[in-house]
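Final report, closing paragraph on structural work. Over the funding period we assembled a curated collection of sequence-structure pairs, and we close with a single example.
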Amino acid sequence: MKTIAFLICCAPLVFGAGFRAGVARVEITPREPIWMSGYASRNHPSTGIRQALWAKALALESNSGRPVVIVATDLVGLPAEVADEVAARAQRQFGLERSRLLLNSSHTHTGPVVWPGLAGMFDLPPGEEQKLHTYAARLVDDLVSVIGKSIADLSPAVVSYGSGEAGFAMNRREPTAKGIRLGVNPSGPSDHQVPVLLVAAPDGKKRAILFAYACHNTTLTGDFYELSGDYAGVAAAKLEAEYPGTEALFLQLCGGDQNPNPRNTVELADQHGVELAAAVDRVLGGPLAALNGPIRTSYVVTRLAFAPQPRSVYQADLENPKSTPAARQRANRMLAAMDAGHAVRDTPYPVEAVRFGKSLTLLALGGEVVVDYALRAHREYPGEALIVAGYSNAVMCYIPSERVLGEGGYEVVDNMVYYGQPGPFAPGVEKGVFQAIHKAMKKVGR
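Its predicted structure, as stored:
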């Protein structure tokens, strides 16, 4: 009652600004056993479904008459090929500008491969690749459909914001005598914030809960072959059970170097999901800040340079009998590009900003962004609520900070093989990302 009373008292302020909201969902669970993404150790398709996978869309419109649509997916990440096609079709069908569509993935490691993203991680048996092509094509249709349904659902709404905390995320970059390894680093940087955006009808009835956290969805490791949304899927399902008729959408933040701790059992995935849902409940039970329009958006694409790699690196991968399928596939692609005179030297990188009046900005970064980016963004933009999401619009590889780049490790070197990128980024990657951030934020008035 306390939350509803607060929302009702704030309704004239927000509703007067002309907010409308629409929500929709579509199930994106594969219809047959399929190769799962996230762990190179997997050697056969999925064996069942622990949780259905969903794409959920939240459309928000202020007095401009142009909606912003946020799409949350229970997927490891969207490759640029899929994201770009969805965006192009949404613009043609609904007139939705690119800056007004935000695509985010939960980064569950118990979801399907989204072709062609991370497909080079595996040496797929005959017939399995075609399943992935079929799934990706259907996924594009589903995402376009859910975007349209959310826009068609637009009606007057009250929008408010709060933030809480959950403590199970832990930095996984563990220093050792031999360098950085994937492990547990309690002294490493983390971000335990749980931002919450509540969308309600003018009478206070909850319609959508957008909640976020910076942590890999890797409670369930490579030994698990049942499809699920991991802890984020558990949290969303619990919130929807607690608030019937409400859609719960999870956004993955800058969790590139964060793992759930502890992990590796179904019970722990449930435990972390319950903890995250409880953090959201606490936010909803306290005072929330009313958001105002207008909604301003910007979308900036920059290019991030890779460190130059000689042919000998890829030739060695082809000649080494112990090379992984991913290393051999990457080597063949890089050598073919060099021979054609089109060596891969950089990658496009998207940065998006969505600002609600002067009260909240949602900054969405592409790739598997390490937590340093969120911590720095909060330092550079104080005085106004800021949500910094990773895994947004396109996931092309890990995005290390300059600190992480200097330290090395999986987020710098090893992941590039699985993503099919030529090698580590060149020094200056963090500077390049923040130049794009500053440009995007300036366009929305920050």
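Residues 360 and 385 are 5 Å apart (CA to CA). The longest strand covers residues 295-305. We thank the funder for supporting this effort.
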